[in-house]
Amino acid sequence: MQMSRTTIALARHSAAGLLYVNVLTHPTTGGVTASFAMQGDITLAEPGALIGFAGPRVIEQTVRDKLPEGFQTAEYLYAHGLLDRIVERKDLRETLASILALHNTQRASAPEGGTRR
Asked: I need a labelling partner for 95 at 20 to 30 A (CA). Which of 57, 64, 86, 112 fits?
């Protein structure tokens, strides 16, 4: 997958007023994280999921500093406002259905020619 193409496609998707919900599972790393995994309108993750661009050692060597324990976990990212919700896999279907139902209700009540975001 090419990062630039997925990023451009997501920009077009957003410009069209469409909802983009991501579900980050274990592990979500590398180019996926850098390109489209963190660009959603709503970002969900599974408990304990490893989410990051590079491994902790590589990042520590790059920034020349010690990083907090668990800084690449779903829980840490949620606590720091980078995720909207942590959802158990067994609850994903119901959670996604609720999000889509709410979004469809909002789209139906939006002024003509626009969407509410």
From this structure: 112
CATH of the domain at 7: 3.90.226.10
* Cα distance between residue 34 and residue 10, in whole Å: 13
pLDDT tens per residue, range 1-23: 688 888 899 999 999 999 999 99
DSSP letter string over 60-76? HHHHTSPPPTTTTBHHH
Residue with tokens 């909002």: 106
Reported as a single tens digit per residue, the pLDDT across 54-68 is 888 888 888 898 889
Three-class secondary structure of residue 45 per DSSP: strand
d(CA 63, CA 58): 9
| 57: containing domain | 3-88
Q: Please, are residues 36 and 10 in contact by the beta-carbon 8 Å criterion?
A: yes
Within a domain: residue 95? no
